[in-house]
C-alpha cells in the first residue's frame, strides 16, 4: 500500500509540474531560511556553555549611580581582586584579567629582521593561572602552571602555527608582545571549537602586567573596562552572600563610593545578552527566531492555497477512488504522502541552500550575527521537527478537504466553493502572508532610513579624506618620536593638515568619564565629564567650531582646557562666555577654561552628547590624524608606512579612514538591515507564490463567468479588475493588521537611538504601494491568460 501510494503521488507530481515546482521552491526557501535563523539563534544561546563550571562562574562588574541614571562597565578597579581574596577566602577561585586589543607580536628570525604580526582576529589578555581553573582549555603542550611567573605566555595552536609554522617544540620559545614584553611560551592550547565571548588567543601572565604597563594604579577610584575579575563560587560563598556583604566591602575599600558605586556579580549565563556591557540584544535574537517561524508559516500557506486550487481538477479522481472502495482514511494518507514527498524533496534542496547560505553569512555578516555551525543531535532533532511541522501545517487541511468529497458530487463535477474551503479560508491565509510580508517591508524601510539618517547627519566635525594612524600603545609616548613623525608626515605634499590626539576622530567610540569640580566649588558636580587629549591643530583639522573663547595653545602638558556646549548647559551657565577663565578641577589637576566648542557627537547616535573637556597631553597621544589632499591615497599611505617604520621600528603600521571608522560603529545595524532586507524579500516572494495559487483558483472558478462577460461585451480592463479588486482588498486588510504591529516593534527599536527618524505615514505608504505593485505583477500574468481566453472555450469548460 505504501509503495502504491508513493507511485501515485510521484505520478501526480510529475503530471502537475508547475504546481510541484512552485510548492518545492516555496518550502525550500522557507525551510532554508528557518535553518539559517536556527543556526544564528543556536549560536547565541550556546555561548560559553561548554565550560564545566558554567553555572557557578560569575564576573564582578562595576555600576555607577547618578541623578542622570546608571553607568555600567564590565571593568573593575585593579586592586579589587586582591581585596576580594583577603576578605572572602571562601571564594573557590578568583582570576583577574586585563584585555589588550589588537596587540603586536614579534618573533625573532635568524639572520633577518623580526617577523611582526598584528593580532586583529582575537583578543589578548593578561591572566592569572587560576583563570584556567575557572574556564576549560585543552592543552596540546605545556600548560598554565608556570604562568604565575613574569615574562611568560600561553598561546593558541593557531597562533603557534602562524608564528612558527608548527605546534611542535614551541614551548620554551620567546615572542615579543606589544613591542616591549619578552615572553617565554609555557603552554599551547587547542583552538576554540565552541562559541565564546572570550576568544583570547594570546595570554601573557598577570605578573607581567606591571612591567608591560609601566606600573599599575592601585587606587579603587579608577576603573578600566579592560580590567576584569572572574570568580567561581560554591555553597560556602554564593552570589547572595556577596550581595549582603558588598556594601561593607565598598565602605572598607572605597568609602567615597558608598552612594554611587556598586560591584555586582554577573552570572556567566547572562554576559552574552547583557546590553549594558556590550552584549547582544536578546530581543533581536528572538525577533530573528520569530521571522523564521513566519517564513515557515508563509511557505505552508502557499502549499495549502495551491493544493486546494488543485482540488477541482482532482475531484473526479477522488470520486473514482471512493467508488472503487477507497476509504476516507486511505485517501487522507495518500494526499499526506504527496505532501511528505514534496516536503522531503524541499528539505534536501533547503539543506543545500543552507550550506551555501551559511558560507555567505560568515563572509558578509559579522558582529552580533556571527555563528559557527555543525550538525549534532540538537540540529538533527530540530530538522526532524521542522519537517514534521511543515508536513502537518501544509498537508492536513488539503488532505481533509480532498478526502472528504462525496463520490456522486465529485463524479458529476458539482464541487462547490464551500466543499473545498471557499474563499474565506484562502483569504485569511493570504492576508496572513501579506501581513507578515508588509511587517518585514516596513521594518526594512525603517532600518534603511535610520541608517541613512545617522550616516548623513552632521556630526559637528569633518570626516572626508582624514586618515587616522595608530601609534604604539605605550605608558608614555616619546615626545621626540612624536615630533619626528609629525615633521616627516607634514613634509609630504599629500598631507594638508596634521594633528595628534589620544583616540583619533572626535567620534572614536572610546569614552573616559571623570568626576569634576567647577569654579572652586567645595563639592564635586553631580555629573561626570568625558575627556579627550588633543593638540592645538585638532580643531582646525576636524573643522570643529568655537562657540566662545579661543583654541588651546601648543603644549606637551595639560594647562588649559576647552569644554563643549553640553557642559555649559549642565553647569547651569546662561551662555558659553560665562565659563571662560573659570577653573575646572579634573583628573587631579586644575585647568583654566579658555574656550567652548560647539557640540559634536563623540559617541554613536545611540547616545546624547555628554559634557566634555579637551586638553593637551603629549604622553597620551595614541593617534595621528592626517587630512589628505590627493587622488592617490594608496601612494600617500605607502609613504606614511615607510616613515612610521622608520620612527617606530618595533611597532606595526595600522591605519583607517575616519568616515569608514564611523560607518563601522553602526555595524550591528547594517548587518540587521541586510538580514531584514533578505528575509523581507523572501517573504514577499513566497507571498507572491501564494497569490499565484489564489489566482489559479479564481481563474478555474470563474472560467465560465469570464466567457459570459466577454460575450456580453465586457472589456479586458473590467475582467482584469474582477481579479485585481479581490487582491487589493486582501492587501489592504493585511496592511491594517501589519501597520500597528510594525509601528510598535520599530518604535521600540528606534528607542535605541537618541537621534532618530520619525515613523511618519510615508514609510507605511511606501510599504503598502510596494506590496500592491508586486502583487499586481504576480496576478497580471494569470489574469491576462484567463481574460484573453476564447469565450467559446470558456463556455464549454463546464
What share of the residues lie within helices?
40-55%
Look at the helices and sheets and give the structural class: alpha+beta
Oligomer: single chain
Morphology? globular
Major beta sheet summary: 8 strands, mixed
* Domains, number: 4
Binned strand content = 15-25%
How many runs of DSSP E, i.e. beta strands?
Answer: 27
- Model regions low in confidence, pLDDT < 50 over at least 5 residues: 417-423
Could you please describe the fold and organization of this structure?
The chain is built from 24 helices and 27 strands. The protein is about 50% helix and about 15% strand. It has about 800 residues and is α+β, with helices and mostly antiparallel strands. The strands form five sheets. Strands 18, 19, 20, 21, 22, 23, 24 and 25 form an eight-stranded mixed β-sheet that branches. Strands 5, 6, 8, 9, 10, 11 and 12 form a seven-stranded mixed β-sheet that branches. The chain has four domains: about 1-45 and about 280-420, no CATH class; about 55-270, no CATH class; about 430-460 and about 665-798, no CATH class; about 470-650, no CATH class. Its main location: membrane.
Amino acid at each position: 500500500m505504501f509503495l502504491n501510494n508513493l507511485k501515485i503521488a510521484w505520478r501526480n507530481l510529475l503530471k502537475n509540474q508547475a504546481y510541484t515546482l512552485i510548492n518545492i521552491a516555496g518550502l525550500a526557501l522557507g525551510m532554508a531560511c528557518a535553518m539559517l535563523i536556527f543556526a544564528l539563534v543556536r549560536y547565541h544561546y550556546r555561548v560559553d556553555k561548554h565550560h564545566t563550571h558554567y553555572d557557578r562562574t560569575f564576573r564582578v562588574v562595576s555600576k555607577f549611580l547618578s541623578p542622570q541614571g546608571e553607568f555600567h562597565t564590565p571593568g573593575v578597579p585593579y586592586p579589587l581582586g586582591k581585596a576580594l581574596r583577603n576578605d572572602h577566602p571562601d571564594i573557590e577561585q578568583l582570576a583577574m584579567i586585563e584585555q589588550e586589543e589588537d596587540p603586536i607580536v614579534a618573533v625573532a628570525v635568524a639572520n633577518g629582521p623580526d617577523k611582526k604580526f598584528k593580532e586583529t582576529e582575537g583578543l589578548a589578555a593578561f591572566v592569572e593561572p587560576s583563570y584556567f581553573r575557572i574556564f576549560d582549555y585543552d592543552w596540546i603542550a605545556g600548560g598554565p602552571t608556570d604562568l604565575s611567573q613574569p615574562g611568560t605566555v600561553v598561546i593558541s595552536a593557531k597562533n603557534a602555527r602562524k608564528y612558527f609554522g608548527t605546534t611542535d617544540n614551541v614551548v620554551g620559545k620567546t615572542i615579543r608582545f606589544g613591542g616591549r614584553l619578552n615572553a617565554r611560551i609555557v603552554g599551547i592550547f587547542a583552538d576554540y571549537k565552541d562559541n565564546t565571548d572570550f576568544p583570547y588567543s594570546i595570554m601573557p601572565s598577570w605578573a607581567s602586567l606591571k612591567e608591560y604597563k609601566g606600573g599599575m594604579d592601585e587606587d579603587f577610584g579608577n576603573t578600566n573596562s579592560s580590567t576584569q575579575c572572574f570568580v567561581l563560587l560554591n555553597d560556602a560563598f554564593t552570589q547572595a552572600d556577596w550581595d549582603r556583604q558588598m556594601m561593607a566591602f565598598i565602605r572598607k575599600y572605597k568609602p567615597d563610593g558608598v552612594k554611587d558605586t556598586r560591584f555586582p556579580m554577573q552570572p556567566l549565563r547572562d554576559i552574552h545578552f547583557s546590553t549594558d556591557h556590550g552584549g547582544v540584544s536578546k530581543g533581536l535574537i528572538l525577533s530573528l527566531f520569530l521571522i523564521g517561524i513566519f517564513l515557515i508559516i508563509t511557505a505552508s500557506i502557499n502549499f495549502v492555497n495551491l493544493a486546494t486550487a488543485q482540488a477541482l481538477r482532482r475531484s473526479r479522481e477522488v470520486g473514482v477512488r471512493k467508488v472503487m472502495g477507497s476509504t476516507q482514511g486511505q485517501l487522507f494518507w495518500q494526499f499526506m504522502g504527496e505532501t511528505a514527498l514534496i516536503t522531503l524533496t524541499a528539505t534536501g534542496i533547503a539543506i543545500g541552500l543552507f550550506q551555501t547560505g551559511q558560507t555567505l553569512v560568515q563572509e558578509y555578516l559579522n558582529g552580533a550575527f556571527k555563528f559557527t555551525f555543525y550538525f549534532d543531535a540538537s540540529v538533527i532533532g530540530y530538522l526532524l521537527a521542522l519537517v514534521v511541522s511543515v508536513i502537518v501545517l501544509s498537508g492536513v487541511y488539503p488532505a481533509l478537504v480532498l478526502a472528504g468529497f462525496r463520490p456522486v458530487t465529485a463524479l458529476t463535477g458539482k464541487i462547490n466553493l464551500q466543499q473545498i474551503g471557499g474563499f474565506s479560508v484562502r483569504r485569511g491565509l493570504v492576508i496572513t502572508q501579506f501581513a507578515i510580508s508588509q511587517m518585514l517591508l516596513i521594518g526594512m524601510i525603517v532600518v534603511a532610513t535610520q541608517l541613512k539618517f545617522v550616516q548623513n547627519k552632521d556630526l559637528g566635525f569633518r570626516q572626508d579624506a582624514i586618515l587616522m594612524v595608530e601609534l604604539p600603545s605605550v605608558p608614555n609616548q616619546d615626545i621626540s618620536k612624536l615630533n619626528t613623525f609629525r615633521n616627516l608626515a607634514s613634509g609630504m605634499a599629500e598631507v594638508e593638515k596634521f594633528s595628534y590626539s589620544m583616540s583619533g576622530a572626535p567620534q572614536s567610540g572610546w569614552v573616559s568619564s571623570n568626576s569634576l569640580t567647577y569654579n572652586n566649588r567645595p563639592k564635586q558636580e553631580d555629573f561626570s565629564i568625558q575627556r579627550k587629549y588633543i593638540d592645538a591643530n585638532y580643531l582646525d583639522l576636524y573643522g570643529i567650531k568655537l562657540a566662545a573663547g579661543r583654541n588651546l595653545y601648543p603644549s606637551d602638558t595639560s594647562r588649559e582646557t576647552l569644554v563643549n556646549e553640553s557642559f555649559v548647559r549642565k553647569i547651569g551657565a546662561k551662555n558659553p562666555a560665562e565659563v571662560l577663565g573659570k577653573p575646572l578641577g579634573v583628573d587631579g589637576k586644575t585647568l583654566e577654561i579658555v574656550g567652548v566648542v560647539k557640540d559634536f557627537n563623540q559617541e554613536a547616535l545611540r547616545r546624547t552628547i555628554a559634557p566634555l573637556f579637551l586638553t593637551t597631553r603629549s604622553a597620551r597621544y595614541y593617534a595621528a590624524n592626517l587630512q589628505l589632499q590627493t587622488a592617490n591615497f594608496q601612494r600617500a599611505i605607502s609613504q606614511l608606512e615607510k616613515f612610521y617604520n622608520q620612527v617606530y621600528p618595533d611597532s606595526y603600521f595600522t591605519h583607517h579612514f575616519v568616515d569608514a571608522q564611523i560607518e563601522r560603529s553602526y555595524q550591528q545595524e547594517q548587518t540587521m538591515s541586510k538580514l531584514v532586507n533578505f528575509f523581507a524579500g523572501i517573504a514577499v516572494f513566497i507571498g507572491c507564490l501564494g497569490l499565484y495559487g489564489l489566482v489559479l483558483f479564481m481563474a478555474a472558478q470563474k472560467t465560465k463567468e469570464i466567457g459570459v462577460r466577454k460575450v456580453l461585451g465586457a472589456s479586458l480592463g473590467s475582467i482584469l479588475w474582477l481579479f485585481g479588486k479581490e487582491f487589493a482588498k486582501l492587501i489592504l486588510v493585511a496592511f491594517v493588521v501589519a501597520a500597528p504591529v510594525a509601528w510598535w516593534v520599530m518604535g521600540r527599536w528606534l528607542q535605541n537611538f537618541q537621534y532618530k527618524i520619525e515613523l511618519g505615514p510615508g514609510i507605511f505608504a511606501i510599504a503598502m504601494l510596494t506590496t500592491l505593485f508586486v502583487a499586481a505583477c504576480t496576478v497580471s500574468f494569470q489574469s491576462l491568460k484567463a481574460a484573453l481566453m476564447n469565450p467559446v472555450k470558456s463556455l464549454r469548460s463546464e
